[in-house]
Amino acid sequence: MPEARCLVQALASGTADVQFAQLYGEGTGVLPFQLARYAGLIEHLVGTWPGDAAADVRLFSSPGRTEVGGNHTDHNAGRVLAAAVDLDIAAAVRAKDDGVIRVLSEGYPPFAIRMDELEPIDAERLTSAALVRGVCARIKQLGYAIGGFDAALSGRVPKGSGLSSSAAFEVLIATILNHLYNGGGIPPIAVAQLSQYAENVFFGKPCGLMDQTTCAIGGFVTIDFADFANPVVRRVDFDFAHSGYTVVIVDTGGSHADLNDDYAAIRQEMKEVARALGGAVLRQCSKKTMLDRLPWLRTQVSDRAILRALHFFDDDQRVVQQVEALEARRFVDFLELVIASGRSSWMLCQNCYQPSDLRRQEVALALALSADLLNGRGAWRVHGGGFAGTIQAFVPQDLVDPYVAAMQALFGSGACHRLLVRPVGACELTPQ
Length: 432
Hints:
Strand content: 15-25%
CATH architecture of the largest domain: 2-Layer Sandwich
Number of domains: 2
């Protein structure tokens, strides 16, 4: 790998254009922007930590992700469909032999982690430092090598957008350590699992594995959580770049800060139905059994719990149908399934508004407006946990501008993020 000056020259020469186009697409101005972005990261790295001017500098990227199918199915051992996106966290990195990792992200103060201090720190929970420490600890526990490095980061995965900025970050750190010290020998699924460990144990968030897996593998990814300890992960073969559609994430506003109880209620109520039917999670039960015993079941659990269980059974199967439609190149059928999932979340899962404040229903309003604007073309659904925050729309290219204009007129400038499905997961870039 070249030292900083030569690497900047390699970027300017166009030797990285093919790889950059694969990560970011070929839209007008995209490649010049990304090349300048990475050149700026290199300059930021060597300007902040001059170190050895002749030392190699290496470039890395980790994508955000978008949930596509299986809304609130993973926690009951169901199936999900997700996709990596072109909004990412990029890094310029230089290895060091002093056993310290130093990280500087744009807009944030730098922090450092020592390789001989890898126990969880309570005061560090919910911080980026906790994620770095947790990734290092888990890699070491698994018998792989760790070591120091300096990294300058540029994040384009918006926080609070449902695009998993935390998963992109922890997978990025794991990928850097994988390539610097393990020759790229840690498999992508292991990168995802150790990143999830860091988030669960060190960061303090009980997340599932979908986000990290999608960031690590790239493209469309379907995951079956029937066995939580050994989820079945499969990449879905579909070229979204030539579909004629853009994914638009719309941030409708509203805070996620007070939604933990609402999220927990979905999981809890689904499991209440499962226990009433003799299982631990709904995947161990059947929709037919539930419907056959419905009069009795209503004496055991709430009607809302039953409705949410119906959503689980239907959306879990829809993931299978979505994967089949994509692999058979039946994109119109796929879009119809996306809408069916969106309607089910709205009507059955009931996570498109917050029960404690029915005056504000931004997510539901965005879905209703999307259905009107797209008028039988494209698709729309709630994105992620719901109640507040974002929706997802698949928008035909000729409708993207008017769709975005209408949404931003309602929810504010910058509310919309136009995305491509990125076929490559977290990786090292190799301009020569």
